[in-house]
Specification:
The complex is a heterodimer of chains A (219) and B (305). Chain A has 219 residues and is mostly helical. Chain A has a single domain, classed as Cytochrome Bc1 Complex, Chain D, domain 2 (Orthogonal Bundle), CATH 1.10.760.10. Helices cover 48% and strands 2% of the residues of chain A. In chain A, a hairpin with a 5-residue loop joins strand 1 and strand 2. In chain A, helix 4 packs across helix 5 and helix 4 packs antiparallel against helix 6. The longest helix of chain A has 16 residues. Chain A starts with a helix and ends in a 15-residue tail after the last helix. With 305 residues, chain B is an alpha+beta fold. Chain B folds into two domains: 73 residues, no CATH class; 148 residues, Cupredoxins -  blue copper proteins (Immunoglobulin-like), CATH 2.60.40.420. Chain B contains five helices and ten strands; from the N terminus they run H-H-H-E-E-E-H-E-E-E-E-E-E-E-H. In chain B, strands 3-2-1-5-8 form a five-stranded mixed β-sheet, with no helix packed on it. In chain B, helix 2 runs antiparallel to helix 3. Classes of the chains: A mainly alpha (219), B alpha+beta (305). Chains A and B meet through helix 3 and helix 5 of A and helix 4 and helix 5 of B.
Chain lengths: 219, 305
């Protein structure tokens, strides 16, 4: 019996105990997650690493990101809501339990001091865009305190990644890139690309809780 | 005296430890993996296709020609140096612009090269001939997995991702101490399955960086380049498991994206296709059902307002 099938049966058992309707409330185990992150480190653990397709941008920082959001994102790649081909291939190889474990690991990875409650006020034009998008409503006043753990922390994330992510919510009927998300789709579609860039540039320069924690060279 | 005996004790202890280490290594002995690497393997993999056989033939053919030339050239050289040395009173020959010699040393290597190139070219042309394939499969390189899509022929429409067994990955991270399985770092969850005796065309491409699809036993290796489509082909002559690895450095997990090709008899392959097809619609139904409820929810939303 392979390790994966054991994990899967364990997940199934856990699911039946907790109740099947609550299947989304998987308990992620950071210690189990540590054994499943080899592929994550390959990009997300290397400072300055760039994704090359469909667009060139720095891969997002995931150390310190909320576990629930990471889990949601992986499931969205798995189901095809998010279409980034390489992330899809990675997510398809993960069971729900694997994804929960990986997510739990990265939430606690390189835990840093919480981001400041108040950020410096953005330039007037950006403030207008942020109000129009209602960003604070989900991502929190300092963009590091999402109102529910389903949403990501975005303050301090790589600017080029934020821009590509925002842009990809605008995509429709594209096979290899884009993201289907009812909420973010509605938000992103009301902005022009230039406006999305301004938002990304502002958010990316704010202090946040996300970082890259490279693997130790001495192991 | 005491010091010396201590010293000897130490050496004896070390020897015993080394011996114990050896015997325990023997207990963990790794075996040959049919279709994959063998223990202390020096030469190419045992061939499973006609082309791989031809490659091995060419390999020996070239090696022997090189060896014969090497022995002849160095034999003449050392013989001359020794037998016609200055101390025996030999005088160097002095001649310039000898047309005969110049024609000879141009023609002889030319003929040898052509002699080597003719069989090699035949094989290279056969390698590149991917026409009239019975089955066309697209292999997509991802960081760090292989995706297989059956594009044409039996099994058309089957698509899946193949990745390394995580247990092996964990074993590698801990230094692979103790017993390692024979298919260490070559075991995948979903091998590429093909029928025996059929011409399989593999189309390679990538979604991120350059990878390379290679199976030594089939004598194939083809780069998988993002934005480009390249192809190669093979016709396996026997059933069994054959292994390869990504052969173009593609990032941190380059060593951990193995290729496992399972060659089945035609009947077994058909059964596998049936099984795979019966699984696939179930997954598809689920997806369309989910999309359906989403649409319903979206349609219902304005009404609730």
């Amino acid at each position: 019996m392979s390790f994966k099938s054991i994990v899967f049966t364990a997940a199934l058992l856990a699911g039946t105990v907790v109740q099947t309707s609550q299947a989304q409330d998987l308990k992620g185990d950071p210690l189990a997650g540590e054994k499943k992150i080899a592929m994550c480190i390959g990009c997300h653990g290397i400072p300055g690493y760039q994704a090359s397709f469909p667009e060139v941008h720095k891969v997002p920082m995931i150390s310190g990101q909320g576990a629930k959001y990471i889990y949601n994102a992986l499931m969205a790649y798995k189901s095809g809501e998010r279409k980034h081909p390489t992330m899809r291939s990675v997510a398809q190889g993960l069971t729900e339990q694997d994804a929960a474990d990986v997510a739990a690991y990265y939430e606690g990875h390189g835990k840093s001091a919480p981001a400041p409650e108040q950020l410096a006020p953005p330039p007037a034009k950006v403030a207008e865009l942020l109000t129009k998008g209602g960003c604070v409503g989900c991502h929190g006043a300092n963009y590091s305190k999402p109102t529910t753990p389903d949403f990501p922390k975005v303050a301090g994330q790589h600017r080029d990644y934020l821009y590509v992510a925002l842009k990809s919510y605008k995509a429709e009927n594209t096979p290899t890139w884009g993201r289907d998300n009812a909420i973010m789709g509605g938000v992103a579609k009301q902005f022009s690309l230039a406006e999305l860039k301004m938002i990304a540039n502002y958010l990316g320069t704010q202090p946040g809780e996300l970082k890259i924690v490279p693997q130790s060279k001495l192991r | 005296m005491n010091m010396l005996s201590q010293h000897w004790n130490k050496i004896a202890y070390r020897c015993a430890a080394a011996f114990a280490g050896l015997s325990s290594a023997a207990a963990y002995a790794v075996n040959d993996l049919p279709g994959g690497p063998s223990v202390r393997q020096l030469n190419l993999h045992a061939p499973a296709t006609k082309l791989a056989e031809e490659q091995i033939y060419l390999h020996w053919f070239m090696m022997i020609i090189c060896l014969v030339i090497f022995v002849a050239v160095f034999g003449v050289m050392f013989y001359s140096i020794w037998k016609h040395r200055k101390s025996l009173g030999h005088k160097p020959a002095s001649f310039h612009e000898s047309v005969k010699v110049e024609i000879a040393w141009t023609l002889v290597p030319f003929i040898i090269v052509i002699f080597m190139a003719i069989p090699a070219t035949k094989t290279v042309i056969a390698q590149k001939d991917t026409s009239n394939a019975d089955l066309t499969i697209k292999a997509t390189g991802y960081q760090w997995r292989w995706g297989y899509d059956y594009l044409k022929g039996e099994g058309e429409g089957i698509a899946y991702i193949s990745s390394l067994d995580n247990e092996h990955r964990v074993l590698s991270n801990t230094g692979a101490k103790g017993a390692t399985p024979d298919d260490y770092l070559l075991k995948v969850d979903n091998p590429l399955v093909v029928p025996v005796g059929k011409k399989i065309r593999i189309i390679t491409t990538s979604s991120d960086v350059i990878h390379a699809f290679a199976v030594p036993s089939f004598g194939i290796k083809q780069d998988a380049i993002p934005g480009f489509v390249r192809d190669t082909h093979f016709r396996a002559e026997r059933t069994g498991d054959f292994y390869g690895q990504c052969q173009e450095l593609c990032g941190k997990e380059h060593a951990y994206m193995p290729i496992h090709v399972k060659v089945l008899s035609e009947a077994d392959f058909t059964a596998w296709v049936q099984k795979k097809k019966s699984q696939a619609p179930a997954a598809e139904d689920k997806k369309t059902a989910a999309a359906g409820t989403e649409q319903v929810a979206q349609a219902a939303a304005p009404v609730q307002k």
